[in-house]
């Protein structure tokens, strides 16, 4: 009874923190999508205020005291798994936050708001120098941040663990090495295949209004609740918000409708995950999403495994053609499927095909690792990037906005985030392999337009589990096995040998 | 020196309050313009959290203590006018806030967020009953609020003073009585005039994209800084934000371009006032806007005295026609001017002509007064509204969304706000009379497109003065006289006798 009171007080404090976090998210979303460029300083003060407030609440000594009392209580062992997991997560986040000085939170937040604006400007103007001093500053601050959290570990290791609990450079190497090998092998076979995708097909001009209509239709088709979310355009596609207010963004190109189409599917995956988090655990730490890797598993799965599948387009191509007027009326199913899955080295990560995608991630992982190990400097970044791009993906960078400053992540200080995308591919393929076991005729259904059976399965098995487990345990809980790259490799081999006929 | 430290601490606290207020404003703007309808409960928690936080900061006993110390200090009299005014405003707001219990702030904020959503729903569905229970609740809460502030005064008097310092029912009567008389007289003359506006002209269909282009052009023309603001569409036009982030909204009708055109001019007036507040006094109480009446003086002045003037359209009509393609190519200047100034009883306040507009306000003022005096109930509102509409403006209400639920104000608890619109007309006409004295050939300039001389004058004389004076003193400071309705009456008589030829 005594312990229950403390536990409830803690949950109340957690709810307060989430409300503050929601406010910060609206401000961030607004910055990306709506904010006039001239109000960046004002916004940086607002964001710094909210972040400092959240930090103050998160480091309230009462939290530490109550957690200690509960853990030392004789009845502690009688608590349920869920209660103990909540306590574990509260303790972890409390311990992390109390290591960071409040002044640092303020400085870091202000700088990142400004840096994001400078990144946008640099990207528009193809001018690295506009962004460089801010990137340098954010990089230094991020190192400092990691050092606060754990001065005994290399900064990059700290960050990897922050975005994906338990991950290390070593563990990522074990995923990336076989994946790289399989990818190189696959690319060679694809190169030698006689089947050549018709790229002109996806270059047909599609008016933005039509693409917007398509976005909405896809979101509904994938069971995104439009009463509890929205879609807009922004410089970089992302998903923001939580629970009943999920906002996804995309970007449109007149001469490449696939850019937005698959971005929308991707962000819809993120969005549905958030919308389907367990309602009864709302505002509890265990009711939050599990990790960035699990988040990306859902987005990559919606986008690639479902969204680029033969079965989906068997059902959807005719509807798509109808929606597009007569732009694609002559297009054949086989040509379309090959075109939207065409494997081709390209410059932009978010537009990369499923096979080369992981190379984009490995490239970023290696650059981040070397940056934090001091092997390369922010000054050298563009040069290193271009060289690695040539080596890894075999392609020359034409301009810096298609190169090292294409992604928003570093501008906000998110170093160590990128590897979670490939982790998402790994988890996603493994989840789907399980789904296929449980719904063997999934493709028969999908060919008739039954997407709901698939999203329902994901909701029940992944979304509804919130943050009840750390990622490897969640994967085991869902699939019976710890994460294993073999499912992703098998998925890629099966799919592309079929598409390219080898 | 000792006193300076206290004063600076107070100003720091005031800045913190404004940052919180800015966050609340972004959340409000977002609710009106962007928020998915399914997240209203979540938003109400966020808004309640921010409002409660602001209230906590505003009632910090340290504020009271520091103010007391400064005022009792032997050197108090050596403070400048500006410093004393800051102290006066801080004391006033502190005294107000400390009378309100924090739980009330939370309840009131939550209810108003929900009530606004219900109002939107009721308006869309033409169903008063969807809104009525919420309006009842908001009305009761507002009475309670007024009672907290001053239990010795009738609630409506407290609210009038809250929106416009110093105003009372008595003082409003003194403004409304001669204005009503002059209006009735004018309407009679207009009725007898042989000149009849061609209403078909403003009913010509104008595609929304063209109207959007027009909005942007007008904002720029009126010297709104587009780098520090934006425009969107919403159910009810309004202006939100402050300093470097000013957001106006409008609403578009395919068959009445004037609806948006003049709403944009109106909100641009509000927006420019906010953008031009004294930069060096930013975040100080004296750096804020003066009052709602002064705010409305700028919006009504931009909209009517400049925006509907002969001189403005002498300059702008050709440009307007060009922008509109060939929709208005046959239109003659005299017909256009009469059409956009056409006096005709109508249902919707924000679209009313300059002459009948004040009758819409008087109607609302009388209803609010009677509501608070208990002479009518929320139940009877639609009936009373329709009856008064017939009596005062001579027109039948066709549906409730054009009647008592047309305005957003009551849904958010803003009872006592409406009369400030007419006050704005009074102040605006008086300001402009002074401007005409100082720039006698203003119309010659305006005919050539020189709007900047006018907006510069308003910026220098009104905007830059922030909240240095209470409204009557500001009017005296600018014009040399206390507020006087005669300038508005003269403006209306001069303008409409010319237009209607009597």
* Rg of chain A computed from alpha carbons, rounded to a whole number of angstroms: 23 Å
Give the strand order of the largest sheet of chain A, numbering strands 1, 2, ... along the chain: 1-3-2
Which topology of the largest domain in chain A does CATH recognise? Neurolysin, domain 3
* Mean pLDDT score of chain A: 96
Structural class of chain A: mainly alpha
Count the strands of chain A?
3
Largest interface: A-B, 31 and 31 residues
Shape of chain A: globular
Our estimate of the beta-strand percent of chain A is under 5%
> Could you give a short account of the major beta sheet of chain A?
3 strands, mixed
Please outline the helices and strands.
The structure is a homodimer of 502-residue chains.
Chain A: H1 2-33, H2 40-58, H3 61-72, H4 81-98, H5 102-125, H6 128-149, H7 155-163, H8 169-192, H9 208-221, E1 229-233, E2 239-242, E3 245-250, H10 257-275, H11 292-306, H12 310-323, H13 333-340, H14 354-372, H15 381-393, H16 419-438, H17 442-447, H18 452-461, H19 471-479, H20 486-500
């Amino acid at each position: 009874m005594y312990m229950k009171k403390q536990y409830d007080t803690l949950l109340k404090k957690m709810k307060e923190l989430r409300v503050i976090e929601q406010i910060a998210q609206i401000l961030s979303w607004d910055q990306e999508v709506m904010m006039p460029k001239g109000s960046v300083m004002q916004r940086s003060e607002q964001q710094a205020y909210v972040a400092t407030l959240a930090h103050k609440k998160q480091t309230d000594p009462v939290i530490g005291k109550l957690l200690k009392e509960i853990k030392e209580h004789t009845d502690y062992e009688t608590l349920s798994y869920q209660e103990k997991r909540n306590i574990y997560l509260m303790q972890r986040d409390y311990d992390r936050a109390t290591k960071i000085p409040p002044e640092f939170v303020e400085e870091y937040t202000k700088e990142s708001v400004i840096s994001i604006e400078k990144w946008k400007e640099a990207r528009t103007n193809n001018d690295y120098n506009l962004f460089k001093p801010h990137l340098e500053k954010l990089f230094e601050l991020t190192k400092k941040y990691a050092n606060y959290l754990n001065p005994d570990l290399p900064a990059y290791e700290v960050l990897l663990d922050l975005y994906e609990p338990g991950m290390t450079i070593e563990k990522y190497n074990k995923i990336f090495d076989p994946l790289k090998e399989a990818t190189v092998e696959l690319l060679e076979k694809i190169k030698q295949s006689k089947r050549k995708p018709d790229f002109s097909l996806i270059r047909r001009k599609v008016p933005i209004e039509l693409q917007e209509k398509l976005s909405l239709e896809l979101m509904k088709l994938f069971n995104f609740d439009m009463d509890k979310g929205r879609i807009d355009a922004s410089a970089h596609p992302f998903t923001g918000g939580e629970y009943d207010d999920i906002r996804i963004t995309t970007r449109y190109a007149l001469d490449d409708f696939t850019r937005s189409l698959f971005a929308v599917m991707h962000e819809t995956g993120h969005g549905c995950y958030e919308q389907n988090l367990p309602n009864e655990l709302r505002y509890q730490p265990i009711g939050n999403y599990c990790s960035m890797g699990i988040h990306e598993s859902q987005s990559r799965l919606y986008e690639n495994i479902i969204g680029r599948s033969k079965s989906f387009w068997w059902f959807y191509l005719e509807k798509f053609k109808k929606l597009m007027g007569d732009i694609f009326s002559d297009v054949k199913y086989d040509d379309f499927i090959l075109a939207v899955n065409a494997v081709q080295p390209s410059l932009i990560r978010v537009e990369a095909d499923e096979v080369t995608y992981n190379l984009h991630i490995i490239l970023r992982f290696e650059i981040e690792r070397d940056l934090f190990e001091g092997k390369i400097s922010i000054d050298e970044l563009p040069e290193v990037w271009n060289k690695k791009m040539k080596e890894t993906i075999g392609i020359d960078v034409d301009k810096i906005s298609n190169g090292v400053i294409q992604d928003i992540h570093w501008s906000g200080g998110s170093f160590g985030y990128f590897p979670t995308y490939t982790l998402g591919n790994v988890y996603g393929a493994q989840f789907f392999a399980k789904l296929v076991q449980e719904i063997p005729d999934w493709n028969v259904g999908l060919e008739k337009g039954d997407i709901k059976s698939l999203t329902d399965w994901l909701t029940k098995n992944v979304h509804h589990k919130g943050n009840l487990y750390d990622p490897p345990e969640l994967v085991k809980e869902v699939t019976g096995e710890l994460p294993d790259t073999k499912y992703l490799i098998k998925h890629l081999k099966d799919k592309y040998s079929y598409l390219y006929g080898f």
